[in-house]
Specification:
mainly alpha; about 375 residues; two-stranded antiparallel ribbon; globular
Length: about 375
């Protein structure tokens, strides 16, 4: 039975006019599927990164001037025991590996945090004066206070890194003009000043230079459990603070005005980030020396895989940066066996070509 439409004269089917088909719901299922697959792939990748870290830790405990079989390493770690191999693993390589994991994780996370704070994908801990601040403090401790051991360097390096970054932050991130560009320029000025100071001190006293150069090259060798105990808690605090900034940094990446509209507190985020960077970079530099390119290369490469979401960038950097640092340390032992090449030298050789490649890609993209 049909009803008559008075406006158009058309027939209307009984039961009312036909409703439009629900077309908007059909594309949602494929979109949700793609999002779920992308999330699952990220989790699988994170699991692989964790597995890579476990494997490189095993290599770090096994490879060296005296290679120790994996079965023996497992026996020493699980059941204890004595002997020369047990001493090498427990007293030399376990602290060395632990320092590599802590320093690598701190540098990778600090690099990701600094790149997020400055919105500059080529930022790293050396850009804002952290490494040179630690170097200046260590030189001062050696030249004027008679400090001559890695244990003694730790607190001076940490203090120098924190003071240098605080000065850069105050100069470049004032309330009047809080911009990443100001922080980069302030970091360049502080870096130049600190380099001049370090050069003046070590050239004036060659004994200071001989002592300083072994720390300045960046190495995991000779580090003891005491270094892990002193630096570890500070790095862990920095890790927790940095991970808590992932969501605010995602909001600020859209612009400061948009970030504020989304609930992000700009100044609070930058201040917390400054404290986290000081703890992470200061702790890593104090433990292993000023190692270059780890904080630059790892977050940038991770971002090419995971996208700009800081939660994933930080999580991956936390695992893959120690893989790079410990891998460089193991490679340095292998290349010049029975001697060894310091990890800082290996990362510089690996990182310099990558930095040039990234710089060229950014320049080409800007054309």
């Amino acid at each position: 039975m049909k009803a008559r439409d008075g406006a158009t004269g058309g027939d209307i089917p009984a039961g009312g006019p036909p409703t439009a088909p629900a077309l908007t719901k059909e594309p949602a299922a494929p979109a949700r599927t793609v999002v779920r697959r992308a999330g699952a792939l990220r989790w699988y990748g994170l699991a692989l990164a964790a597995l890579a870290l476990v494997l490189v830790c095993g290599l770090s405990l096994s490879v060296g001037a005296r290679n120790v079989p994996f079965a023996t390493v497992w026996e020493v770690l699980v059941r204890g025991g004595g002997g020369e191999e047990a001493f090498v693993v427990r007293e030399l390589r376990v602290p060395r590996t632990a320092v590599g994991v802590l320093a690598g994780a701190a540098l990778g996370l600090a690099g990701a945090l600094m790149q997020g704070l400055t919105r500059n994908p080529l930022a790293d801990p050396g850009l804002l004066g952290v490494n040179n601040g630690a170097s200046a403090a260590v030189v001062t401790a050696i030249a004027f206070l008679g400090v001559d051991s890695p244990i003694g360097y730790v607190w001076f390096a940490l203090l120098g890194a924190a003071v240098a970054y605080a000065v850069v932050y105050l100069l470049g991130a004032s309330r009047r003009a809080s911009t990443p560009e100001r922080m980069v320029l302030a970091g360049a000025a502080i870096n130049a000043t600190l380099i001049a100071y370090v050069s003046a001190v070590i050239l004036h006293d060659l004994s200071v230079f001989d002592e300083f150069r072994f720390w300045a090259v960046g190495s995991l060798a000779g580090r003891t459990t005491d270094v892990v105990v002193q630096v570890g808690p500070l790095i862990l605090i920095g890790v927790v603070a940095a991970l808590g900034l992932a969501r605010p940094l995602n909001a600020l990446a859209l612009g400061e005005e948009t970030g504020r509209a989304l609930g992000a507190h700009t100044e609070r985020t930058r201040l917390t980030g400054a404290v986290a960077v000081a703890l992470l970079c200061g702790g890593a530099t104090a433990a292993a020396g000023p190692i270059a390119f780890v904080g630059l290369a790892v977050p940038h490469l991770v971002r090419m895989v995971t996208g700009p979401d800081q939660r994933w960038v930080m999580a991956y950097s936390l695992l893959l940066a120690p893989v790079l640092l410990l891998g460089a340390d193991v490679l340095g032992r292998f290349l010049v066996s029975p001697g060894e090449l310091e990890a800082g030298i290996v990362t510089a050789f690996l990182g310099a070509p990558l930095f040039i490649l990234l710089s060229r890609r950014r320049r080409i993209a800007a054309l």
